Input
Amino acid sequence: MTLESSSTLVSLPINEVFEQLIQASTYERLLPEEANFQSKDEKQFSFKLSGMPVIALKIGRETAFNEVVLVADGGNIPFELTIMLSEVDSQTKIQIKFDGTINAMMQMMVKKPLTQLLETLIGNAKKL
Output
């Protein structure tokens, strides 16, 4: 299953945005306020939203100034969140893509909450 967020512009240079996104602690500002966030180290973190299991992520791959890939760190569903960056007039355009191996029945249950999570993350990108 693949889902993509809308995109947004952040009024920071792409190198500053990238440097923030490769630090686990940054994601506490991007997640919904009600998320119970825990940072394991600078590359791993987890969070829990009401009605969902704990989601553990780690920064899996980085392509300087272009993309940061967060990968599931355990759990029952293997997935990745790819944060794509591009420079637009000295600002940074950000978009997030979810890729996961989810059966058809689970897709129906998780599509809406996942889409909402992606849109919250992208909406909170202005906090960078």
Q: What stands out?
A: The chain has three helices and seven strands.
